Amino acid sequence: MYKRYRFPPAIIQYAVWLYYRFNVSHRDIEDLLAQRGIIVSHESIRLWCNKFGTKYARRFKKKHQGYGDTFFIDEVFLKIDGIQHYLWRAVDQDGEVVDVFLQRRRDGKASKRFFKRLLTAHRNEPRKIVTDKLRSYGVAHRELIPDTIHDTSQYANNKAELSHQPTRVRERVMRRFKSTQQAQRFLTVHEVVYNLFNLGRHLVSAKNYRVFRSRAFASWNCIAA
What we know:
This protein is α/β, with parallel strands linked by helices. The chain has 2 domains: 1-63 and 180-225, no CATH class; 70-178, Ribonuclease H-like superfamily/Ribonuclease H (Nucleotidyltransferase, domain 5, 2-Layer Sandwich), CATH 3.30.420. The chain contains 9 helices and 5 strands, in the order αααβββαβαβαααα. Strands 3-2-1-4-5 form a 5-stranded mixed sheet, with helices on both faces. The chain is globular and about 55 Å long. The protein starts with 8 loop residues before the first helix and ends with a helix.
């Protein structure tokens, strides 16, 4: 995968990890590497992130052990090049992102398209889905997974709504997404890295957190090798 690249794989992996793990730009990473004596242009880093980030995400999803049986689903608007889009997101009961999908609409067709992606990623129908009262969800539920419990009660979907916050932070840092292709590519990889390193630091002891972090680094090294 790294054949004919001038820099060692470890540097490429580190640059890609920095970009998707923290709220930094390609130029920030250029400076961080330069401080360590590694001279590489921000344009090269951008190309690394675009190419290898997608490859890493694909590998991670193939090796993923599966998600929970309850999906919290929500959509939020994104403006790209002056046009309003909708970012659909599903998380399981543990807060792990199952999928993100950017679409121009949030009607019944868009909802069914997203649900089909979820079923492909999950490989089985979820036991329960939790959404707001948008009618499009009801259409997809009735036609695709009628046997699944559908909860639309107030506040039940807070988990999905809060999961949009990291995306909003990155959107501001990047001064908005420039195109739908760029946004979908970035968000797909960003959610994979988020899943891997979202370890619930405030919920566990420092000792356990270090163990979980070591496992996350081992998993990252495995998919980036």
